[in-house]
């Protein structure tokens, strides 16, 4: 039985229209597949095995499942893929972070936050695949325009970790009129625990004392979210 012949051409030997860099320059980034975009980040393949950067990119995506999981991985996890060193891992993760920050800037440029769904869309890329719970404060002015957002705590959330004093420091410093608290559930299930409910009540009470409205507490899960406001769990005088 004849064995299939493996294509050992490097990208430089491909027709010019098929090379990822040239293809991007001619047709724009939207014309490239996920693997082609990652190949541009990797820049080079493995000369000793005649494996191209595109081959390596395909193996990376296959190993992690998709771009989102790849760009949310740790350096060490990416380096476990054969042929991928620290330099290439750092390049991939840097590009992922640029994408997340660009997404964050989009919502910051909007006039107002209209609903919890917008908050979820803003944070889903950065929070969905985190392995630890992260608690964030989104600061708003009197017109509910985003001022900025700031990480408050990371780790297993409890009263000791999410203390009202630390939670409201950014809001006081920025003279925010209102705040929306956001955190993720690494399990993917955004339904609130009793601990989440207790923390929310404590923060609402602290906001009353400071004169800062707590508009909502949004929990980010896998492809879905939970809003305390939408589920009627926020005091009426907070809206």
Summarize the structure.
The protein is of the alpha+beta class and 239 residues long. Helices cover 42% and strands 14% of the residues. A hairpin with a 4-residue loop joins strand 4 (213-220) and strand 5.
Helix/strand layout:
Layout: H1 20-27, H2 34-42, H3 53-64, H4 67-71, H5 75-79, H6 86-108, H7 116-127, E1 134-140, E2 146-154, H8 164-173, E3 178-184, H9 194-210, E4 213-220, E5 225-227
Parallel strand pairs: 3-4
Antiparallel strand pairs: 1-2, 1-3, 4-5
Helix pairs in contact: 2-3, 6-7, 8-9
Q: Key terms for this structure?
A:
single chain; five-stranded mixed β-sheet; elongated; 9 helices; alpha+beta; 239 residues
Characterization of this structure:
The chain is of the alpha+beta class and 239 residues long. The protein is 42% helix and 14% strand. It is built from nine helices and five strands; from the N terminus they run H-H-H-H-H-H-H-E-E-H-E-H-E-E. It has helices at 20-27, 34-42, 53-64, 67-71, 75-79, 86-108, 116-127, 164-173, 194-210; strands at residues 134-140, 146-154, 178-184, 213-220, 225-227. Helix 2 (34-42) crosses helix 3 (53-64) and helix 8 (164-173) crosses helix 9. The longest helix has 23 residues, at 86-108. The radius of gyration is 22 Å and the shape is elongated. Residues 1-8 have low confidence and may be disordered.
Q: Write down the Rg.
A: 22 Å
* DSSP strand count: 5
Largest sheet: 5 strands, mixed
**SS-based structural class?**
alpha+beta
Give the N-to-C terminal Cα separation: 73 Å
Low-confidence stretches: 1-8
What overall form do the CA principal axes indicate? elongated
Main sheet: which strands, in order across? 2-1-3-4-5
Query: What's the average pLDDT?
Result: 85
Q: Helix and strand succession? A: HHHHHHHEEHEHEE
Helix content: 40-55%
Enumerate how many helices there are, as a single number: 9
The portion of residues forming beta strands comes to 5-15%
């Amino acid at each position: 039985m004849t064995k299939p012949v493996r294509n050992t051409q490097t990208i430089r030997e491909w027709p010019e229209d098929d090379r990822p860099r040239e293809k991007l320059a001619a047709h724009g980034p939207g014309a490239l597949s996920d693997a082609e975009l990652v190949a541009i980040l990797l820049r080079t393949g493995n000369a000793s095995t005649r494996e191209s950067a595109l081959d390596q990119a395909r193996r990376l995506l296959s190993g992690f499942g998709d771009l989102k999981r790849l760009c949310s991985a740790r350096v060490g996890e990416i380096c476990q893929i054969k042929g991928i060193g620290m330099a290439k891992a750092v390049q991939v993760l840097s590009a992922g972070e640029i994408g997340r920050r660009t997404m964050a800037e989009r919502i910051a440029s909007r006039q107002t936050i209209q609903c919890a769904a917008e908050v979820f869309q803003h944070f889903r890329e950065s929070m969905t695949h985190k392995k630890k719970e992260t608690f964030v404060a989104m600061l708003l002015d009197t017109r509910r325009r985003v001022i900025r957002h700031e990480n408050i705590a990371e780790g297993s959330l409890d009263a000791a970790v999410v203390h009202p004093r630390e939670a409201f420091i950014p809001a006081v410093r920025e003279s925010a009129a209102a705040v929306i608290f956001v955190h993720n559930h690494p399990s993917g299930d955004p339904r609130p625990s009793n601990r989440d409910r207790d923390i929310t009540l404590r923060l609402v009470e602290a906001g009353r004392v400071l004169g800062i409205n707590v508009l909502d507490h949004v929990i980010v899960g896998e492809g879905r979210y939970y809003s305390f406001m939408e589920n009627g769990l926020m005091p009426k005088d907070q809206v």
